[in-house]
Amino acid sequence: MSYQLHRDSARQITARCVVITLSDSRAAAEDLSGKQIAQLLEAEGHVVADRHNIPDEPEQLRAILEKTLERGDVDVIITNGGTGIGRRDTTIPVIQQILEIPLPGFGELFRMLSWEQVGSGAMLSRACGGVVAGKLLFALPGSPKAVELGMTRLIIPELRHLLHELRR
Q1: 96-121 confidence digits (pLDDT tens)
Q2: Potential cystine with 46: which of 4, 41, 86, 138 (Cβ 3.0-4.6 Å)?
C-alpha cells in the first residue's frame, strides 16, 4: 500500500493526548507552549485528556509518565521543555530510558527544520520521539516557536498515520 493510501486510511482516527510541560520558571498559567500544543491538537479534532506542568525533575517526570502509560484512554504523550543541554535539562534521559521503539527520524527532521529557523543552534536540541507501551511519546523543546514547528510540520501531519500503524 502506498504512503498516501496509508495516511488516507487513518483519517478517522482521533488521538487521545496528554501534554506535559517541564519548566522551572513557568507556572501553569504562563505555560504558552503546553497551551499551544493542546490548541493545535484540538484544532485537528484530537482530544487532550490531561495536561501537567512540572519542574525539571526527572523523578516527577518518570512518575507522571508511568501513570499515564497505564491509562487506557491515552494514545499520545507530548512533553515540552528540558530538551537542551543545560544541567537542569533532564527530559531526554528519562524518555530515552523507557522508549521501546525509538523514532530517530523525528529528532533528525526536527533539527533539520530547526536549522532553517535558527541555524547552527539547532544542534542544541535533543528533541526525540518513539513508542512505549503501545503509545506515542514525543519530547519537544519548550519554546513556542519550537513547539509550533514540531507540531505543525511533524507531529500533527503524521499523528493519525502513526496511530494507524501502531494499531495494525
Answers
A1: 999 999 999 999 999 999 999 999 99
A2: 41
Give the whole-angstrom CA distance, residue 81 versus residue 144.
10
Q: Which CATH superfamily is domain 3-167 in?
A: MoaB/Mog-like domain (3.40.980.10)
Domains of the chain by residue range: 3-167
Distances 130 to 51, 66, 76, 100 between C-alpha atoms, Å: 20, 15, 10, 7
**Grid coordinates of 101:** 521503539
Q: Return the percent helix, strand and coil in the chain, to nearest 5.
A: 50, 20, 30
Of the candidates 124, 97, 100, the residue with the CA atom closest to the CA atom of residue 110? 124
